[in-house]
Amino acid sequence: MTQLTALTPVDREYIAELFESTVHTEEGMTDGIHSVQDKLGYIVLYLKYLQLDLEATRRENAIMRRILDQTTAEEE
Predict the structure, then answer these.
(1) Whether 26 contacts 18, CB under 8 Å
(2) Cα atoms in the 13 Å half-sphere on the side-chain side of 65
(3) pLDDT tens-digit map of 13-47
């Protein structure tokens, strides 16, 4: 702190502006990081739903194939 008081008023004002700019930039980066984390969470959830849907589609496909095979076998 004693180093700051040794500076000229112009230099102190310049350092204060740099500090404010740094704080503002850090807040913006923090907001950006939170936004990316939220989007990644949404993507992970969406992928889980897609995986469940794929598994259900495969089960339905297997069931339909068995029904088709049974129907075809009965017709022959």
Answers:
(1) no
(2) 6
(3) 898 899 999 999 999 999 999 999 999 999 999 99
Q: Phi/psi at 66 (nearest 5 deg)?
A: -60, -45
> In sequence order, what DSSP letters do the residues of 5-50 get, joined into one string?
HTS-HHHHHHHHHHHHHHHHHHHHHHHHHHHHHHHHHHHHHHHHHH
Higher local confidence (pLDDT), 75 or 46: 46
Compute the distance between CA of residue 60 and CA of residue 57 in angstroms, rounded to an integer. 5
pTM of the model: 0.60
